[in-house]
Each structure stands twice: as C-alpha cells, then as structure tokens.
Amino acid sequence: MDEILRSLRLYFLLQRASARGAMQYRMNTVIGILSGALWQGTGFAFIWVVMHTFPSLAGWGLAEIAFLYGMRLTAHALAMIPLMSVNDIQWVVRNGEFDRFLLRPLNPLVQLMGNRVGIGQFGDLLVGVALLVFAGQNAHIQWNAWLFAFCFVAIVGGALIEAAFFLGLCSLSLRMVDTFALRLFVDDVFSKFGSYPMKIFGGVTEWLLTFVLPVAFVAYLPSSVVLGKLDNPWALAAPLLGVVLVSLAYLIWRRQLDHYQSVGH
Amino acid sequence: MTRIGFRLALAYRSNIIMTCVTLVAQVFLLRMIWTSVYGSRPTAAGLTLDALLAYLTLANLQAFATHTVVARTIHDRIRTGTVFFDLARPVGYLRQMAAFQVGNTGGGLLLIAPVIPVVLLVGSITEPVNAAGYVITLLLGYVIALQLALLISLVGFWTMETGAISLLYRLVSQFFAGTMVPLAFFPGLLGVVAEILPFKYMGYVPAAIYVGHISDLSGPVLVEIAWIAGLSGLLALTWSRARRRVVIQGG
After folding, report:
1. Cα B136–B137–B140 angle (5° rounding)?
2. By the 8 A CB rule, do B182 and B45 touch?
3. CB within 8 Å of A18: residues ≥ 6 apart
4. Using CA atoms, how far apart are residues B142 and A98, in angstroms rounded to an integer?
C-alpha cells in the first residue's frame, strides 16, 4: 500500500512538471485544448443536424443521445489524459530511453505515464462534461443519489475498459511489436461506434461490439440503465468489467516487461 | 514535383491501410445510422434512402480524394528553411506546390483503389443519374480545394506556424462539405452558411448531382468557375506579398 501511495505521489509530481513544461508554450496548449474540443464538437454537430430532421434514433431522443455521447467522451478523456504519453512507447523503446526508466526506483509504467500530459484530451473532457450536464437536465432522468453514484462509477469503469485495451496493446511494443496502427483502429472503433445506441447496428456487429470488443460496456449499457431503457440486472455490473480488464492488461504489461530487451545504445 | 508527391503517398503504406479501414468503418457507421433514422420513411428532404446512402458513400470517398497535405509540407519546409530550394528552382513556387499535391492525390487514389469496390458495396452505391456532371463538378471542386490549401499554406510565410489553422480548416471544410449530412438537412442559418461557403463543391454538389438531387448543372459549374477565378486572383496577390516576406531559417 505504501508503495502505491508513493507511486501516486511521484506520478503527480511528474505530471505537474510535464504540465509546467507544456505551459511554457501557452498558445500551443490553448490551441491544443480547443482543437480537441472542436474535433468532438463537430462530431456531435453531426448528430444534432441529423436529429433536427429525425427526432428519434432507434427510440433515443437528442438529449438521450447527448447523454450517451457525453458519457463515452468523458470516459475516453479520463482514460487518455493520464495514459497519453504511453502512446510514445514505440519511440521510447527504440531510442533506448526506456532503459533509464528501469534504473530509477519507480514503477516504469508510472514514469512513462508522467512523461507528458495529454493536452488535446482536456478538450474532450470539456465537451464530454458539458454534454453530460446539458443532457442530465434535459433527458428527463429521475436523479437520486444512487443513480448519481452509478453514473460516476460507470464513467470510471468505461475509462478503465478503454485504458485496458490501450495499455495491453502498448505493452506489446516492449517486445518491438508495432501496434500503433492497431491502437488507432481500436480507438476509432471505440469513438465511432461507442457513441450510438448499439441497437442500430443489429446482428453480428452488435454482438461483436458487446462481447469481442466491449464497446457497449463503456457508455451504451450504463446510459441505458440511467435513462431507464434497460431492465436487465446484468447491466448494473457493467462497470466491473473495466476493473477486470485493466487488471488483465496490467498483467500483460508485467509479462511483456519481463521479456524486455534493450536495443543496446 | 508531381512524381515526388506521388511517391510520397506510396511511401507511407501502413498509413494508407489505416485510412482504408477507417473509411470502410465510417461508411458502414453512416449507413447504419441513416438506415435507422429513416426507418419506414420513404423520403426526407427530397432524398430517398437509397439515394442518400449512395450520396454518403461518394461524399466520403471524395473527402479522402480532396484531402490535401500540401499545407503541412510547406509548413515543414518553411520551418526548416528548405523552402529556399523550392524558391531557387526556375519554376513558379505555387505551380510546383500544386503539382506536388496533384501527384500526392494521384498516389493516394492508386493506393485506395482496391478498397473502393468494398466501400461502394458497404455503402450500397446506385447507378449515376448524371455521370458527366459528377465528374465535371468534382474536378472543378478539386481545383477549389487545391487553391484553398495553397492559400492556407501561404499564411505560414507570415505566421511561421500553420498546424492549428490547417486542423481547423480540415474540420470546418469537412463539416460544411456535407460529408456526413447532405446540406439539404442543414437547418436555418447553418444551411445558409453552408450554401455560401465553397466547401460544398468538394462534397455535397458533385455527390448530389450523381444521385440526381441536383439536376441543374449550369448554376453550380458557373459558380465553381467564378470561385476558381476569384481564388486565383487572391492567390497571385497573396503570393506576390508573401515572397517579399520570405525568411529563410537556419543555413
């Protein structure tokens, strides 16, 4: 436990240093956040324009879709803000920089995570939370303390699912398997398909997105619960999947780390 | 220069594979969303579902074809100072860069050629209502896309930094080109803005002519030619000012 607290404290110190580094280029940082927000904003603008003509998408209204979209986006931002710099792992390994992480007395993953702060993802967070707040008031949800807590836990659970896939794929880079393109693809599937009611895909695609790449668990199932669209009691357990998957991903990471060989500089 | 652009496109193969996969996924997603919202409705905003799906397939392929990299290339070359070599060549700078982009587009199209049938199948394409009109308006639209990209690149001679502007341009142009929603669905003021902006000639107008949503050809073609003429003038003017401001970094 002490070890974890110490890692956490050091992680925050590293991240603060990275954030300070990023703020040296203030304009660039602001533009980075705004671009992130705008990127997601145009994504939602599409839905808004479509639903201007068609009031319902598979039985979901605009506010309900907004809630789903916001939940997905917030989970995505929470997963990627701390993990963004792990995306560079390919280069860190190839330049031999990773050897330095192994020498220092701190978990190498924590060091890698503290390398850089994900700036564009703060833009995602901004749009995600804004959508949640807007939709939370307009989607006729009977808010109570339990639902609120479930919502919070579900978002964290969703973030863990995305983080698990990201970390699992990244850790393969420790053994020089380039998974960059694959990560882009997985991210693309999560962001494209995760923001819509799975019902519209139907059949095989819906099944694949639920049980193979569990996109449905990130936002679709939890928001169905919050919006009162799903009675299946299993959906309440959706947030747990994230915990299971992220533990699994961390095991993979540890296993790959054992097999790490320096490029030798 | 055209050949360099062509080869550059071929050099990043894994990039292209990614683009292909994303393209197929995008068209599939759009098909599912639109099929779902149409439900049992036969037609909306004057478009049947079949026509709409064909439209979306084309518009997404076009978005790929009219995507330009020239701004980023020019930006890199200004920043590293290598723009000097381009300026020293005895061929006009803008012409070189236009040739580079055309070659790059050609290379990109060659690489996605094998996927085009897949995309057409996933998006369920229909027979063209006006094939000639489609090709003409799309080619003119490509010229407009090229001119706008060059214009944005030239801003770099003043600001030295075009990354953010390029990204912004890409987002705005894709949205107003009607890649995901035909302009016919844009409500109120948004529709008016989209109608005025030139981005619709890269996506909406050619694709709408293909599916027969727009039947009058002369109007769009004339406006496109007017845009091209206007942008040519603006480009020449901007370039005559930009070339006096060239700063060669490094060396």
Report:
1. 90
2. yes
3. A85, A114, A115, A116, A117
4. 46
Q: Which two tokens stand for residue B8?
A: 């550059």
Q: How far apart are CA A128 and CA B166, in angstroms?
A: 24
**Cα of B188 vs its chain's centroid, Å:** 25
Contact at CB, B36 and A53, closer than 8 angstroms: no
- Chain A within 8 Å of B36 (Cβ-Cβ)? yes
Cβ contacts of B214 within 8 Å, gap of 6 or more:
B205, B208, B220
Please give the Cα distance from B74 to B89 (Å, whole number).
Answer: 15
ipTM of the complex: 0.75
CB contact under 8 A, B33 and A189: no
Using a 10 angstrom Cβ sphere, with 0-12 exposed, 13-18 middle and 19 or more buried, the burial of residue B159 is exposed
For the question of whether the overall pTM of this predicted structure is more than 0.90, the answer is: no
At how many degrees (to 10) do helices B93-112 and B131-159 cross? 130
Give A-chain residues touching B29 at CB under 8 angstroms.
192-193, 196
DSSP string, B108-149: HHHHHGGGHHHHHHHHT----S-HHHHHHHHHHHHHHHHHHH
Token pair for A261: 């060989």
Q: Is B189 on the interface with A (CB under 8 A)?
A: no
**Tens digit of each residue's pLDDT, chain B (251 residues):** 778 777 777 766 666 777 778 888 888 888 888 888 887 677 777 778 888 888 888 888 888 777 777 777 787 777 777 777 877 787 888 888 888 888 888 888 887 787 788 888 777 777 788 888 888 888 999 999 989 988 888 877 777 666 677 777 888 888 888 888 888 888 888 888 888 888 888 888 888 888 888 878 888 888 899 999 999 999 889 888 887 777 666 64
| Both tokens assigned to B247 | 């700063």
Domain boundaries, chain A: 2-258
Separation CA A235–CA A214 (nearest Å): 13
Closest by CA to A112, choosing from A191, A15, A35, is A15
d(CA A210, CA A200): 13
Using an 8 Å CB-CB cutoff, list chain A residues near B185: 49-50, 52-53
Q: Which amino acid is at B92?
A: G
